[in-house]
Write a structure and sequence with these properties.
The protein has 275 residues and is an alpha/beta fold. The chain has one domain: Rossmann fold. The chain is built from eleven helices and nine strands. Strands 1, 2, 3, 4, 5, 6, 7, 8 and 9 form a nine-stranded mixed sheet that branches. The protein is globular and about 50 Å long. It starts with a strand and ends in a 9-residue tail after the last strand.
Protein backbone atom coordinates (compact mmCIF):
# COMPACT_ATOMS: atom_id res chain seq x y z
CA UNK A 1 0.00 0.00 0.00
CA UNK A 2 1.09 3.57 -0.73
CA UNK A 3 0.30 6.38 1.73
CA UNK A 4 0.79 10.04 0.80
CA UNK A 5 -0.04 13.34 2.52
CA UNK A 6 -0.64 16.32 0.27
CA UNK A 7 -2.01 18.59 3.01
CA UNK A 8 -0.91 19.61 6.47
CA UNK A 9 -3.69 21.32 8.42
CA UNK A 10 -5.45 19.68 11.40
CA UNK A 11 -3.61 17.04 13.40
CA UNK A 12 -4.76 14.38 15.81
CA UNK A 13 -4.71 16.60 18.89
CA UNK A 14 -7.22 17.52 21.60
CA UNK A 15 -8.95 20.08 19.38
CA UNK A 16 -9.52 17.44 16.70
CA UNK A 17 -11.19 15.01 19.11
CA UNK A 18 -13.27 17.68 20.83
CA UNK A 19 -14.73 19.17 17.63
CA UNK A 20 -17.63 17.78 15.66
CA UNK A 21 -16.57 15.82 12.60
CA UNK A 22 -18.95 15.16 9.70
CA UNK A 23 -17.37 11.85 8.78
CA UNK A 24 -17.60 10.58 12.37
CA UNK A 25 -21.23 11.71 12.65
CA UNK A 26 -22.00 9.76 9.49
CA UNK A 27 -20.21 6.76 10.99
CA UNK A 28 -22.34 7.02 14.12
CA UNK A 29 -25.45 6.70 11.97
CA UNK A 30 -23.98 3.49 10.55
CA UNK A 31 -23.16 2.06 13.98
CA UNK A 32 -19.45 2.83 13.89
CA UNK A 33 -17.59 3.24 17.19
CA UNK A 34 -15.06 5.76 15.84
CA UNK A 35 -16.73 8.86 17.30
CA UNK A 36 -16.48 11.18 20.27
CA UNK A 37 -18.89 13.13 22.53
CA UNK A 38 -19.21 16.11 20.18
CA UNK A 39 -20.04 13.79 17.27
CA UNK A 40 -22.62 11.85 19.25
CA UNK A 41 -24.24 15.03 20.51
CA UNK A 42 -24.57 16.38 16.95
CA UNK A 43 -25.87 13.06 15.60
CA UNK A 44 -28.50 12.70 18.32
CA UNK A 45 -29.63 16.29 17.85
CA UNK A 46 -29.95 15.72 14.11
CA UNK A 47 -31.84 12.48 14.67
CA UNK A 48 -34.25 14.22 17.05
CA UNK A 49 -34.91 16.93 14.48
CA UNK A 50 -35.00 14.61 11.43
CA UNK A 51 -35.77 10.99 12.40
CA UNK A 52 -35.09 9.82 8.84
CA UNK A 53 -31.46 11.01 8.85
CA UNK A 54 -30.04 7.68 10.05
CA UNK A 55 -31.98 5.76 7.41
CA UNK A 56 -30.72 8.23 4.81
CA UNK A 57 -27.13 7.44 5.76
CA UNK A 58 -27.80 3.72 5.48
CA UNK A 59 -29.44 4.15 2.09
CA UNK A 60 -26.46 6.19 0.93
CA UNK A 61 -24.08 3.49 2.12
CA UNK A 62 -26.05 0.77 0.34
CA UNK A 63 -25.94 2.76 -2.90
CA UNK A 64 -22.17 3.13 -2.62
CA UNK A 65 -21.62 -0.61 -2.20
CA UNK A 66 -23.98 -1.43 -5.05
CA UNK A 67 -22.24 1.13 -7.26
CA UNK A 68 -18.82 -0.39 -6.58
CA UNK A 69 -20.13 -3.72 -7.82
CA UNK A 70 -21.90 -2.13 -10.79
CA UNK A 71 -18.71 -0.39 -11.95
CA UNK A 72 -16.68 -3.57 -11.52
CA UNK A 73 -19.22 -5.57 -13.52
CA UNK A 74 -19.11 -2.94 -16.27
CA UNK A 75 -15.45 -3.79 -16.74
CA UNK A 76 -13.72 -0.83 -15.08
CA UNK A 77 -10.45 -1.88 -13.49
CA UNK A 78 -9.32 1.16 -11.47
CA UNK A 79 -11.24 3.01 -8.79
CA UNK A 80 -11.07 6.41 -7.09
CA UNK A 81 -13.08 7.10 -3.91
CA UNK A 82 -13.01 10.86 -3.27
CA UNK A 83 -13.84 11.97 0.27
CA UNK A 84 -14.14 8.31 1.21
CA UNK A 85 -14.62 8.88 4.94
CA UNK A 86 -14.00 6.43 7.77
CA UNK A 87 -13.61 2.84 6.59
CA UNK A 88 -16.84 0.89 7.06
CA UNK A 89 -16.58 -2.72 5.98
CA UNK A 90 -17.23 -3.86 3.38
CA UNK A 91 -15.12 -1.12 1.81
CA UNK A 92 -14.47 -0.64 -1.89
CA UNK A 93 -11.49 -2.97 -1.84
CA UNK A 94 -13.60 -5.76 -0.31
CA UNK A 95 -15.84 -6.04 -3.40
CA UNK A 96 -13.01 -5.98 -5.94
CA UNK A 97 -10.35 -8.33 -7.14
CA UNK A 98 -7.29 -7.76 -4.99
CA UNK A 99 -4.94 -6.76 -7.79
CA UNK A 100 -7.15 -3.89 -9.00
CA UNK A 101 -5.89 -0.36 -8.24
CA UNK A 102 -7.97 1.46 -5.61
CA UNK A 103 -7.29 5.03 -4.48
CA UNK A 104 -8.89 6.36 -1.30
CA UNK A 105 -8.77 10.13 -0.74
CA UNK A 106 -9.78 12.16 2.31
CA UNK A 107 -8.42 15.32 3.93
CA UNK A 108 -9.32 14.29 7.48
CA UNK A 109 -6.20 13.17 9.41
CA UNK A 110 -8.09 10.59 11.46
CA UNK A 111 -9.69 9.08 8.36
CA UNK A 112 -6.35 8.91 6.56
CA UNK A 113 -4.64 7.28 9.54
CA UNK A 114 -7.32 4.62 9.90
CA UNK A 115 -7.34 3.92 6.17
CA UNK A 116 -3.60 3.42 6.21
CA UNK A 117 -3.84 1.11 9.23
CA UNK A 118 -6.82 -0.96 8.11
CA UNK A 119 -6.40 -1.15 4.35
CA UNK A 120 -2.83 -2.34 3.98
CA UNK A 121 -3.81 -4.74 1.22
CA UNK A 122 -0.89 -4.74 -1.15
CA UNK A 123 0.64 -2.55 -3.80
CA UNK A 124 -2.66 -1.87 -5.57
CA UNK A 125 -4.05 0.29 -2.74
CA UNK A 126 -3.21 3.98 -2.40
CA UNK A 127 -4.33 6.27 0.44
CA UNK A 128 -3.94 9.99 -0.16
CA UNK A 129 -4.64 12.63 2.45
CA UNK A 130 -5.59 15.62 0.35
CA UNK A 131 -8.06 18.44 -0.15
CA UNK A 132 -9.87 17.77 -3.42
CA UNK A 133 -10.70 21.46 -3.83
CA UNK A 134 -9.17 22.74 -6.08
CA UNK A 135 -9.62 19.53 -8.02
CA UNK A 136 -7.24 20.34 -10.87
CA UNK A 137 -4.19 20.63 -8.62
CA UNK A 138 -5.04 17.42 -6.83
CA UNK A 139 -5.61 15.41 -10.01
CA UNK A 140 -2.30 16.56 -11.49
CA UNK A 141 -0.31 15.67 -8.36
CA UNK A 142 2.43 13.05 -8.56
CA UNK A 143 0.60 10.50 -6.34
CA UNK A 144 -2.45 10.61 -8.60
CA UNK A 145 -0.35 10.33 -11.75
CA UNK A 146 1.33 7.28 -10.23
CA UNK A 147 -1.89 5.65 -9.06
CA UNK A 148 -4.25 6.13 -12.03
CA UNK A 149 -3.55 5.11 -15.63
CA UNK A 150 -5.29 7.69 -17.78
CA UNK A 151 -5.10 5.43 -20.81
CA UNK A 152 -7.94 3.40 -19.28
CA UNK A 153 -11.34 4.23 -17.72
CA UNK A 154 -11.63 4.93 -14.01
CA UNK A 155 -14.65 4.70 -11.72
CA UNK A 156 -14.95 7.78 -9.49
CA UNK A 157 -17.20 7.83 -6.43
CA UNK A 158 -18.36 10.93 -4.52
CA UNK A 159 -20.68 9.60 -1.83
CA UNK A 160 -22.18 12.34 0.37
CA UNK A 161 -19.06 14.46 -0.18
CA UNK A 162 -20.02 17.56 -2.15
CA UNK A 163 -22.70 18.86 0.28
CA UNK A 164 -19.90 19.61 2.74
CA UNK A 165 -18.48 22.21 0.33
CA UNK A 166 -20.99 25.10 0.47
CA UNK A 167 -19.54 27.25 -2.35
CA UNK A 168 -21.47 26.38 -5.52
CA UNK A 169 -18.89 27.97 -7.81
CA UNK A 170 -16.01 26.03 -6.28
CA UNK A 171 -17.89 22.74 -6.48
CA UNK A 172 -18.96 23.27 -10.09
CA UNK A 173 -15.42 24.18 -11.15
CA UNK A 174 -14.04 21.13 -9.36
CA UNK A 175 -16.49 18.85 -11.11
CA UNK A 176 -15.72 20.42 -14.49
CA UNK A 177 -12.04 19.65 -13.90
CA UNK A 178 -12.77 16.12 -12.73
CA UNK A 179 -14.91 15.27 -15.75
CA UNK A 180 -12.31 16.70 -18.15
CA UNK A 181 -9.59 14.60 -16.47
CA UNK A 182 -11.53 11.32 -16.64
CA UNK A 183 -10.75 9.11 -19.67
CA UNK A 184 -13.47 8.04 -22.07
CA UNK A 185 -15.50 5.12 -20.74
CA UNK A 186 -15.07 6.26 -17.14
CA UNK A 187 -17.88 6.05 -14.59
CA UNK A 188 -18.97 8.83 -12.24
CA UNK A 189 -21.20 8.02 -9.24
CA UNK A 190 -22.51 10.80 -6.97
CA UNK A 191 -24.92 11.01 -4.05
CA UNK A 192 -25.91 14.46 -2.82
CA UNK A 193 -28.19 15.82 -0.09
CA UNK A 194 -31.25 17.69 -1.33
CA UNK A 195 -34.13 19.61 0.12
CA UNK A 196 -36.38 18.90 -2.85
CA UNK A 197 -38.36 16.13 -1.15
CA UNK A 198 -38.87 17.75 2.28
CA UNK A 199 -37.64 21.37 2.20
CA UNK A 200 -38.58 22.37 5.75
CA UNK A 201 -37.19 19.20 7.34
CA UNK A 202 -33.86 19.48 5.51
CA UNK A 203 -33.61 23.19 6.35
CA UNK A 204 -34.07 22.26 10.03
CA UNK A 205 -31.37 19.61 9.68
CA UNK A 206 -28.98 22.17 8.16
CA UNK A 207 -29.62 24.50 11.11
CA UNK A 208 -29.06 21.68 13.60
CA UNK A 209 -25.73 20.78 12.03
CA UNK A 210 -24.73 24.46 11.99
CA UNK A 211 -25.42 24.71 15.72
CA UNK A 212 -22.84 21.95 16.16
CA UNK A 213 -20.21 23.53 13.93
CA UNK A 214 -20.98 21.67 10.69
CA UNK A 215 -21.80 23.46 7.44
CA UNK A 216 -23.77 21.43 4.92
CA UNK A 217 -25.23 22.63 1.61
CA UNK A 218 -28.23 20.79 0.14
CA UNK A 219 -28.63 21.31 -3.57
CA UNK A 220 -31.57 21.07 -5.94
CA UNK A 221 -32.10 18.43 -8.59
CA UNK A 222 -31.03 20.89 -11.28
CA UNK A 223 -27.83 21.79 -9.42
CA UNK A 224 -26.94 18.15 -8.83
CA UNK A 225 -27.71 17.28 -12.44
CA UNK A 226 -25.21 19.91 -13.56
CA UNK A 227 -22.40 18.11 -11.67
CA UNK A 228 -22.54 15.32 -14.27
CA UNK A 229 -22.14 17.64 -17.26
CA UNK A 230 -22.88 15.74 -20.47
CA UNK A 231 -21.96 12.31 -19.12
CA UNK A 232 -24.51 9.68 -20.15
CA UNK A 233 -26.80 8.61 -17.32
CA UNK A 234 -27.26 4.92 -16.67
CA UNK A 235 -30.22 3.03 -15.23
CA UNK A 236 -33.04 5.30 -14.05
CA UNK A 237 -30.88 8.42 -14.24
CA UNK A 238 -30.84 10.98 -11.44
CA UNK A 239 -33.29 9.87 -8.77
CA UNK A 240 -33.72 9.39 -5.03
CA UNK A 241 -30.69 7.45 -3.81
CA UNK A 242 -32.66 4.44 -2.64
CA UNK A 243 -34.48 4.11 -5.96
CA UNK A 244 -31.50 3.89 -8.32
CA UNK A 245 -30.93 0.16 -7.81
CA UNK A 246 -34.47 -1.04 -8.35
CA UNK A 247 -33.80 -4.55 -7.04
CA UNK A 248 -32.53 -3.31 -3.66
CA UNK A 249 -34.71 -3.26 -0.52
CA UNK A 250 -34.24 0.52 -0.32
CA UNK A 251 -36.15 0.97 -3.58
CA UNK A 252 -39.42 0.45 -1.70
CA UNK A 253 -38.76 3.39 0.61
CA UNK A 254 -40.20 6.85 -0.18
CA UNK A 255 -37.81 9.48 -1.61
CA UNK A 256 -37.82 11.50 1.62
CA UNK A 257 -36.04 8.61 3.37
CA UNK A 258 -33.17 9.08 0.94
CA UNK A 259 -33.12 12.88 1.32
CA UNK A 260 -30.63 12.81 -1.54
CA UNK A 261 -30.30 12.35 -5.27
CA UNK A 262 -27.96 9.81 -6.82
CA UNK A 263 -26.84 8.85 -10.28
CA UNK A 264 -24.25 6.86 -12.17
CA UNK A 265 -23.09 8.27 -15.50
CA UNK A 266 -20.52 7.31 -18.12
CA UNK A 267 -18.20 9.46 -20.19
CA UNK A 268 -18.84 8.42 -23.75
CA UNK A 269 -16.02 7.23 -25.98
CA UNK A 270 -16.78 10.15 -28.31
CA UNK A 271 -15.90 12.65 -25.61
CA UNK A 272 -12.39 11.55 -24.62
CA UNK A 273 -10.31 13.41 -22.07
CA UNK A 274 -10.64 17.20 -21.78
CA UNK A 275 -14.06 17.06 -23.41
Amino acid sequence: MTYVELVTGPRLDDAYYQSTNASRVYGWYLGDCQNYPADREAARAALAMAPWVQQSARINRAFQLQSYTWARDMGVRQFLDLGCGWPHHPVLYDVLERELPVVYVDQDPGVAAHLAAELDQGDATTVIRADIMPMGSFLSSAPMLDAIDLDHPVAVFLGDVLPWWPDDTVVQQAMNELRAWMPAGSILAITHLTGDFTPEAVAALVDTYAAHGLTVRPRSRQQIESLFGDFVHQGPGLCATGQWHQASPEARRPPEHSAAFAAIAVKSTAQGRDA
